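Researcher: Structure for this, please.
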Amino acid sequence: MKTRLIVNQFFTVLVSLLFISCGDSSEETPIESPVQDTSIHYGNAAYKLPQLSEKAQEQTIRWSVFEDFENEMKLINGANIETLLSSTDRLLKFSDSLSKTVPETLKDKAIVSRLIVTKIRAGLLHQELRLSKLDSTEIQKSIKYLNIATSNLFTRINEKYTKEAIDFERKENEEAELKKQKKFLDSVYQAELRDKNN
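Model: Predicted structure, token format:
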């Protein structure tokens, strides 16, 4: 009899605990991820990438992923968090592909090193946007530094072709000067020959 009473009491306590625990779980609110404010825009909406020279454009057209990268870079300035999240995914892929597919005409140490910096900056922005708690100031800084890295890359590509054009012009001038000197020396030699014959 005593055993039966103990079992009944135990059963009652167990049912009560079960009831209480079920009641608590229905009152729990699910953990939600923080809602992103899509009205906030990041970066500098007025930012423009340096214009590539005609010769530089001729070379980058052959670098298929370059245009995709350039277009994505134009999207991140003045973008909201939603656009930034999707854009940085693509930017990372494009910057990775850029560094692996540099055309021979652009394989220059300065260009390659700027590509690496751009890729790192894109990765840091991507990381910043995926933190559980977003920091607007850090996001702004990351975009600013990515803009600087990308501008430096474009500027270096332009410089490569400006330098090549200057080198080519100098070489042509030197060749023209050598021809002029040879022509002058030939005419002096011819004049001396005429003097000797007379």
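Researcher: Any notable elements?
Model: The chain has a mean pLDDT of 80. The radius of gyration is 35 Å.
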